[in-house]
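Repro case for the chain-ordering regression, as requested:
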Amino acid sequence: MARRIPRQAWALGLFLLILLLIPLAITNRYWMNLLITTFMFVSLGQAWNWVGGYAGQISFGHAAFFGLGAYTSTLLLTKFGVNPWLGMLAAGVVAIAVAFLIGWPVFRLQGHYFAIATIALGEILRIGFDNWEWAGGASGIELPIMESSFLHFQFFSKVPYYFIALALALITYGITWWMTNSKVGYYLRAIREDQDAARALGVNPTKYKYIALMLSAMITAFVGTFYAQYILFIDPASTMALDLSILISLVAVLGGAGSFLGPLLGAFLLIPINELTRSFLGGGGRAYNLIIYGALIMAIAIWQPGGLWELLERWRKRRRGRKQEVTHEAA
Amino acid sequence: MKKYLLVFILVLAFGFILAACAAPGGGGGGDVVKVGAVYPLSGATASTGEDLKQGVELALEIVNNKHDDLNLPMAKEEGVLKGKKLEVVFADHEGKPDKGKAEAERLITQEKVVALFGSYHSSVTKTASQAAEQAGIPFVNAESTNAKLSDRGFKWFFRTTPHDGTFAENAFQFMKDLNDEKGAGLKTVALVYENTDFGKGFANLAKGFAAQYGFDVVEEITYPAKTQSVSAEVQKLKAANPDAVIFVSYVSDAILYMNTMKDMGVAPKLVWANDAGFIASGFLENLGKDGEFITSREVWAADLAQARPLVAQVNKLYHDKYGEDMNGNSARAFTGMLVLADAIHRAGSTDPAKIQAALKATDIPGDQLIVPWKGIKFGDNGQNTLGSGIVVQVLDGKYTTVWPFDLKAADIVFPFPAWDAR
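-- result from build under test --
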């Protein structure tokens, strides 16, 4: 055990180094965009994983928090001239507040009913924003193009966006690390396995589900703000729609819900495949890209329902098993 | 733990290998000029995307081959820039603004296109044209109608289609022409619109133009599009007794209004609709005879062929190729691509600044177009200043062009006949 930790640190360090050096090697805007989008979904998938994976409360409404994040900072910027970095913090606060408010009714529901309630939440918000004229209505808001600077949270180059997206993903993973190694993580998993049993053992399920949901909403809103500053245009259809909620949950579920590395694997597999198949096969107008994308999702769902993570785990166990056999024979 | 790293690297490598395989071999040969088109080729508007793509492809065929019989820009030339072939690389944005931007950037950096074209959805046109603006290459938009698109101070954005502001103004130009040329005596107007962005946005524009053209808005009625009854609204309309009613409605509410107006015997002199519900396929299917004589704005109609034979010629080519008639979207995409090809040709090179200058100098007369515009000439904001919509009227169960009067396929029936006098 003592020997394995440094190795783990080595691997992590090397991985981070690669990520830090990538902008030196890749200057093409398209590939940078692909990586930035992937990092966004690493954060979104992992934030979803806290609620949907660790706590076992499947949410199909996370686009609501994403949209709230995008809209909070953008409205503050365009209507009141508030700096988008402050807007990002405000977005986090708004998302936490909304998570708190909706947690009260929806945490009384379990299983499918929780999932249905979150769909309703997302759709209500989207329709509300579609009709809210002051907030741009269905035609959305275009952000003013400003001089590239860190202060403005706006850059012509993709490199700063790359590092901000990477930082968000690292923060998200930091929180996950803390969660999995603290009592919160154990309580959440206990709640997922059997809420009543957990309660009987003195765990307050509502409190810990709240913690997971509020943190998750906050990170999702941060990414929403990032998206707004990155794309410079938001509307309810692109920031609050159900298909975004589903994509977020898909990243976590296909990667492995409730696992540490699952959302990362999911994002690095799903987002590039989604983007690349669209770019290189979608131009024909025959939707081959969606066929491949859909087939892949079905394949994983059928043969690997535990996600890519489970595949990895099984492979690791088999190797360890073989190694043990070898040592056994040698002894 | 080493294995985890291995998997990371595998996943990363997978992405990059896929990329390397799929990456195209640079900016095309010396005898091809590449243009990128970002369109909704999958998702909810895929069928519209298909129409747009077909319009663009037909335009390409005309640009790249000699068509001496067609009085269109680029028809008599073979290719652009002394015989180079014009090629369009299509990309799919799925109706999503972020994907539109990503595809626009890919077309610019990977495919090395000299100009961009698209993107139908105003929201996607916003982000895709940002990419062109940042890269400094022209973006020609042929079919997005959000008025604000041309108010952004962009230097590389050119829009051939008239926008929503022009369509709203058309309503009042049409009424003024009716007054001037047919002695219609229209003075008072009621606005009836559904209460979302679509209705409200149009109503705001309409109020401005009403004042400008000297009409009085005597009643404004807003309602939710999914309403079950509009009796109260029609009652209000009856009380206000306006000369003309302007509707902004979806299809089920449009049908409801017509039925209720018939029941209550409300028949203003002119019923004008802002497209949408009144020209949706369900409208006449449901109303039959009761849908007659309403007027609606349109962007294009095949019966323009009566006034402009060119429309019939091009529509025939289109029909031969795709087995269906052109529509407002394919006709506008077709026209936009010819405008871009013409500009590239006149620029004499693929240098973006020269194409931009050539676009600014564009001056195509109306008789070389298959769309009902007076011509194509861009203002300082990149908006075509000569665009216009048309007004169609339901006559014998067909939407028939009645305005502008010089492009009409039939005379307008005016006033809107009383319900018991039909």
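Ordering looks correct now. Strands of chain A lie at 141-142, 233-234.
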